[in-house]
């Protein structure tokens, strides 16, 4: 999207499908939230030569990412083509900022209410659950940059 700025990034989301859990990442921009398959980010990053991002998302079940890695990941993703990332997987989706009624985030879960629909995810990053880490606060700040008081941190 032209003139779109990436404000932040939430990694290691898990959505529960019919067969198996699916790993997702949330890219927060000033115009929309993009919910992308973690493999989309990895594939896009690898094809664009961003081995760093591929490494972050290629860690399997650990999915640990610290503050510096989050900032680098957001910068690298913002240099890519978000619309191409969105189109790369039919399960990827975009939610317009104006349609979002509320986002509830805790150290374990993230729920988005938009257009009468509810999207629920588990936060899989162990650093988000660690009260000594500032990863959770970074997630909340990124969401609040885009959504203001529609973000409810628990």
Distance between the termini: 32 Å
CATH superfamily: Pleckstrin-homology domain (PH domain)/Phosphotyrosine-binding domain (PTB)
Order of helices and strands: EEEHHHHEEEEHHE
The major sheet is characterized as: 8 strands, mixed
Approximately how much beta-strand content do the residues carry?
25-35%
Name given to the CATH architecture = Roll
Mean pLDDT: 77
- What number of domains? 1
Write down the Rg.
14 Å
The 3D shape can be described as globular
Give structural notes.
The chain has 154 residues and is of the alpha+beta class. The protein has a single domain, classed as Pleckstrin-homology domain (PH domain)/Phosphotyrosine-binding domain (PTB) (PH-domain like, Roll), CATH 2.30.29. The chain is 34% helix and 34% strand. It has 6 helices and 8 strands, in the order E-E-E-H-H-H-H-E-E-E-E-H-H-E. It has an 8-stranded mixed β-sheet. A hairpin with a 2-residue loop joins strand 2 (21-29) and strand 3. Helix 1 (38-47) packs antiparallel against helix 2. It is globular, with a radius of gyration of 14 Å. It starts with 5 loop residues before the first strand and ends with a strand. The model is unreliable at 42-64 (pLDDT under 50).
Write a compact overview of the structure shown.
This protein has helices spanning 38-47, 51-57, 67-79, 82-87, 126-129, 135-147, and strands at residues 6-16, 21-29, 32-37, 93-96, 100-105, 109-114, 117-123, 151-153. The protein is α+β, with helices and mostly antiparallel strands.
């Amino acid at each position: 999207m032209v003139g779109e700025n990436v404000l932040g990034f939430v990694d290691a989301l898990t959505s529960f499908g019919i067969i198996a859990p699916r790993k997702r990442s949330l890219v927060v921009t000033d115009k929309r939230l993009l919910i992308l398959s973690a493999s989309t980010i990895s594939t896009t990053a690898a094809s664009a030569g961003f081995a760093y991002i591929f490494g972050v998302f290629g860690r399997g079940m650990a999915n640990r990412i610290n503050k510096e890695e989050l900032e680098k990941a957001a910068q690298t993703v913002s240099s890519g083509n978000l619309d191409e990332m969105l189109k790369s997987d039919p399960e990827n989706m975009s939610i317009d900022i104006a349609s979002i009624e509320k986002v509830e985030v805790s150290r374990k879960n993230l729920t988005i209410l938009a257009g009468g629909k509810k999207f629920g995810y588990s936060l899989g990053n162990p650093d988000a659950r660690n009260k000594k880490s500032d990863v959770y606060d970074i997630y909340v700040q990124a969401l609040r940059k885009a959504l203001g008081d529609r973000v409810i941190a628990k």
